[in-house]
């Protein structure tokens, strides 16, 4: 096929890459074996007609859900045909890139049965669920309660006579709502309900509740269940988020999950031994979400980087020379306004990736400590994972939409591929802890550290040690940034000192503001803005530190020096761009002087210029295949306009010369005042 | 019907309003007569089954477009049945709240024929179009060119023998793309094409080009036309944005629009007398977009304000007392984190509304000047309208999505109503001038003013007079904010001085940076970040000034003193919140001191508290009816959960007990490993 100009442009950009791309792919995905396996699984999905990208959009809600069911079945068939491990199966599900009706069965229902069921329960329900002879969902939120789970209104009341729980929606707002897999597919639901024995309320516990008959899939009497309908922005279109309302629905006493709390045959409630152990799985989930934020944003940035490389607009010179053909219009990626938005985003992607690695290591080491009964690191790991989840998923959601804006008019076509990524990703800012609320937990944790700093400074946790410096307020207020010339900004210790100072100041301010009232309580809700600022400042510190440590780790892994150099530039750009975003705080504190702000901007500009030849390679390194990218504008070959044109031609609406609706509507419009006399 | 708690909450909030709401409604919509007419037209649409909100979503692309056609026909029927004026007809189309296939016929094709057609052409084509005996679209952008219209590749070449233009797509990238109404409905297109006579290229001109036969709606030979498919985020779902590619399609010479440039029968090209007159309509369009930004954001904020008033979550005290029942959970709107996001947005809405009024007045006075051949104000009005369009539509798009985030989990339901608003609005950041590119024009205009300030300061235009102060650099750099105590922040002259100082500094900096190269040219593209910052700073100044003048105008219109007080608070909050967002700039410049920053924050907090009782009324004042809001969560009665539940129950997918797809997909999943043995 003839090389079009866009194809030449992308190839030329690729040729300029200064480092071996595969080196970085290995750094991202772990090993050559893992890369190879990923590619095999990606191809398995890409080559299957059920997962074709051509027929995924423009469907009605009923068709969408039906397609979600078809994809679910096909995935199970592939698992069987190719003897896929559970891990490989979940990777394939990721490559399908749709929230599916079976998604939460696999990622929530099964794990929770093993985590919260007794050994006996795990043995009974586990295999049934793994062989999907039953399909479950995880039903927590209600129409009236999302964030505040302590006020859930669904009840499970012990009926001693029948030895059953009576599951009941006590009020209208008790209706379970938003539950993935509940709408049409599930046979069982893991219901969080208030456990009540003899009128005493023991709070929310988990129960396995049959929803639909295994015989004919009809809901049981006393169970009003259905789909909650379309979601915003066309997101979550193939999954059946559902509602359920119970009218005194009885289930066996043994269906309560009893690994921790128990209720005996004679109706005795037995308390769980440890209440904090359940935090572990939340930490793991949020850690995954940190890495997910990086890969999601990377996908959008891959598309935007490629398209802005091939898109040319305006014959105006830029200082950056066009190597392909100076007589052509300017490549959009050469405009400073585009670089200033895109390049720091790429730096954020790599910083979040590094933080994901940090989280994984923290989680693993915490896990082995927990095995030995040591819960000392749990609080810090939980606080960091909450804060990072909030900060990183906010960055990613904003960034994906920024990618669309970078792509001008065509970015608004569904075929740009950004729409699907963003509309599916954006609710992650709300689920698994609302991003605004999570910051409260993280901030309160830091407050504990600052109070520890005055009494037992040696006990302050590793990522909070900067709070110690705030104790001597005079010395802390006299702290100044050590930058003397622009190049000093590239020193990691100078960068980290700035992050530490800002977070330190915010935690000290919060400690001052959090004055207990007469009854000893603090009106936290009045401080939630301050908590929010502190939490993000702390997360930014963790991100900057992870990025710096990531460069060191790349060095110790023996990556090529060119690769290490580009990772160092990204780490620098992340740090400096993030500092720049809070210049007001630094200036108000006299930590930075106006000339230092000037030199900061200069250094950021230099870093961006130094990355210009590498951004295509930096995105290629993620190794997304075209099927998964699902973008006419961001494909590997760069042939954006042709792919856009081809996608459009395949549309159902273009298969007839005259549209369905002509006789019914168009002709009557044209003839309302009689036919035209031309 | 029994009052539910949410209904009581909203009623209680409404009862606390400190000012007469109708007073403000009159201020917004003009007069009691206009309010009454608006309500009649809104009811006309709301009561017509074709425009029912129940069946608008969850449709396939083909069904969506068909519904768009049905709505188009119904609108024309209503026009006839109720003898609607064109203005009332367009208001009804607004209330339908969908981009429709006939939309651009009415708002672009018809006006352009009258604006750019000769008298003879207007007489011939105008009535045909007004009676929609032909349906037109306006075809400018191509697949390869959106922003840069000077490089359009479609040609209209004069064939002297046949006295015809030959319309031709010279390359693949010349295909017209994104054209609303072109996909399935239009019979004619107003094509922008390069006019070529005897090999000489005269640049882009407009031509009326027949696309589909009036007999059977089939495209003419040489015309490949169709729909460009789905757009991002489910937006623009009912309109047929289309593509067209011409293969030497002949049209009569007289089909060139000849009000300005002409081509005579013997093939002579006659130049247009004035080139700048066409700017007028662009200014008008962008002025409308300023007001549109306010009303669009107001709609989303109405929903968010009402829902956060009725949503209760967490039993934590806030300093703001719950008047309804202190034993209930806290109303979400009482959290400072919510107020800090929502209240400044409401202030932005009113500032943008005031700027819309400013623009209208400027446009009208410019128009009467133009009639007298005076083009002196054109440049300023054009620059301000470009800048405001960019700033205001950015604020509105960001704000609408922020409203969704304020609404937590349920915000992501389609039934929140935010999704439709945002997905339809967000492309306005790109069309009618990309928001990033527009800032370049506006900034260059200000540079001209600063150079004028040194030579002929009396000629500097009214909204740019602050540049004069920058000429004496020493005095300018010594400028300091006059605030001594928090209350000083409420003085309009102090607020405006801050905006003027910041914009002045940015224009002076840009003048220094814009150093011509040896050939006298300036590499503008290297400065586009600086232009962007300057343009927004200037727009913010115009907004703040308009808000302040709006309060004065409300006073002179005789509004109640309570209404004026609340408008003054909004104006203050807009100014202070906007200044706060650029604290870094002010501190770096020593214009603000750290204690002034402290007092600024304090004053913002006070303003927010003072508005807390009025936000529901401030949104009610826009007088949006429930059908137009189309939000289960934001309806006037506040019964959010019940409406959400009811919307869900109506979904097609919930009309059967067992989903379509059970036998085909679910049963095979459940039985892949044999049936469950329970």
From TrEMBL, chains A, B:
Cofactor dependency: FAD
A UniProt-annotated Pfam family: ACOX
Keywords: FAD, Fatty acid metabolism, Flavoprotein, Lipid metabolism, Oxidoreductase, Peroxisome
GO terms (BP aspect): fatty acid beta-oxidation using acyl-CoA oxidase; lipid homeostasis
Protein origin, superkingdom: Eukaryota
Cell cycle keyword on record: no
Record-annotated active site: 432 (proton acceptor)
SUPFAM superfamilies cross-referenced by the UniProt entry: Acyl-CoA dehydrogenase C-terminal domain-like, Acyl-CoA dehydrogenase NM domain-like
Main location: other
GO cellular component: peroxisome
Ranges for domain Acyl-CoA oxidase C-alpha1: 279-447
Binding site residues for FAD: 141, 180
Record-annotated Acyl-coenzyme A oxidase N-terminal domain positions: 21-135
Domain Acyl-CoA oxidase C-terminal: from-to ranges: 492-671
GO molecular function, one term: FAD binding
Compartments, as annotated in UniProt: Peroxisome
Coiled coil: none
Family note: Belongs to the acyl-CoA oxidase family.
Protein's name in the database: Acyl-coenzyme A oxidase
Organism of derivation: Entomortierella parvispora
Lineage of the species this protein comes from: Eukaryota, Fungi, Fungi incertae sedis, Mucoromycota, Mortierellomycotina
């Amino acid at each position: 096929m003839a090389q079009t100009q866009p194809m030449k442009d992308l190839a030329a950009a690729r040729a300029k890459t200064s480092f071996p791309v595969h080196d970085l792919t290995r750094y991202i995905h772990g090993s050559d074996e893992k890369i190879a396996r990923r590619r095999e699984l990606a191809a398995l999905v890409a080559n299957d007609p059920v997962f074709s990208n051509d027929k995924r959009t423009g469907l009605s809600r009923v068709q969408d859900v039906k397609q979600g069911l078809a994809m679910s079945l096909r995935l199970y068939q592939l698992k069987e045909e190719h003897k896929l491990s559970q891990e490989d199966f979940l990777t394939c599900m990721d490559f399908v890139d749709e929230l599916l009706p079976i998604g939460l069965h696999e990622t929530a229902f099964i794990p929770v049965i093993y985590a919260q069921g007794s050994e006996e329960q795990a043995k009974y329900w586990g295999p049934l669920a793994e062989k999907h002879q039953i399909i479950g969902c995880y039903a927590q939120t209600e129409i009236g309660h999302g964030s505040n789970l302590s006020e859930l209104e669904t009840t499970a009341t012990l009926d001693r006579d029948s030895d059953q729980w009576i599951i009941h929606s006590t009020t209208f707002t008790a209706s379970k709502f938003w539950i993935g897999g509940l709408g049409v597919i599930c046979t069982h639901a893991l219901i969080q309900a208030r456990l009540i024995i003899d009128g005493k309320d023991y709070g929310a516990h988990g129960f396995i509740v049959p929803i639909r008959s295994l015989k004919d899939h009809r809901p049981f009497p006393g169970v009003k269940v259905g789909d909650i309908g379309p979601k915003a922005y066309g997101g979550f279109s193939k999954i059946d988020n559902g509602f359920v309302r119970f009218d005194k629905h009885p289930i066996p006493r043994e269906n309560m999950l009893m690994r921790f709390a128990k209720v005996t045959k004679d109706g005795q409630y037995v308390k769980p031994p440890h209440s904090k152990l359940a935090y572990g799985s939340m930490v793991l989930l949020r850690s995954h979400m940190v890495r997910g934020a990086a890969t999601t944003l990377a996908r959008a940035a891959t598309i935007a980087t490629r398209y802005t490389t091939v898109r040319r607009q305006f014959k105006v010179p830029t200082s950056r020379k066009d190597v392909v053909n100076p007589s052509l219009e300017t490549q959009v990626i050469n405009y400073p306004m585009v670089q200033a938005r895109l390049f720091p985003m790429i730096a954020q992607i790599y910083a979040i990736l590094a933080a994901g690695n940090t989280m994984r290591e923290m989680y693993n080491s915490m896990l082995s400590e927990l095995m030995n009964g040591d819960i000392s690191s749990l609080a810090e790991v939980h606080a960091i994972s909450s804060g990072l989840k909030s900060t990183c998923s906010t960055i990613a959601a904003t960034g994906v939409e920024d990618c669309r804006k970078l792509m001008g008019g065509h970015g608004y076509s569904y075929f740009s591929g950004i729409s699907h990524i963003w509309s599916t990703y954006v609710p992650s800012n709300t689920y698994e802890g609302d991003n605004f609320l999570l910051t409260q937990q993280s901030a309160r944790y830091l407050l504990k550290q600052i109070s520890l700093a005055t009494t037992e400074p040696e006990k302050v946790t590793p990522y909070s040690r900067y709070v110690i410096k705030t104790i001597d307020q005079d010395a802390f207020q006299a702290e100044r940034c050590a930058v003397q010339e622009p190049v000093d900004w590239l020193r990691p210790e100078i960068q980290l000192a700035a992050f530490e100072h800002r977070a330190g100041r915010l935690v000290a301010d919060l400690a001052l503001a959090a004055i207990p009232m007469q009854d000893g309580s603090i009106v936290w809700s009045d401080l939630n803005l301050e908590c929010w600022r502190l939490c993000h400042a702390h997360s930014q510190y963790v991100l900057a530190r992870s990025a710096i440590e990531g460069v060191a780790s790349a060095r110790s892994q023996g990556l090529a020096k060119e690769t290490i150099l580009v990772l160092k530039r990204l780490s620098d750009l992340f740090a400096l761009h993030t500092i720049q975003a809070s210049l007001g705080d630094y200036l108000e504190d006299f930590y930075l002087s106006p000339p230092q702000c000037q030199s900061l901007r200069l250094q950021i500009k230099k870093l961006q210029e130094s990355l210009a030849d590498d951004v295509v390679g930096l995105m290629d390194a993620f190794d997304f295949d075209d099927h998964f990218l699902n973008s006419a504008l961001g494909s590997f070959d760069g042939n954006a306009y042709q792919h856009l044109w081809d996608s459009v031609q395949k549309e159902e609406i273009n298969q007839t010369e005259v549209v369905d609706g002509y006789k019914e509507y168009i002709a009557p419009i044209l003839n309302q005042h009689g036919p035209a006399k031309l």
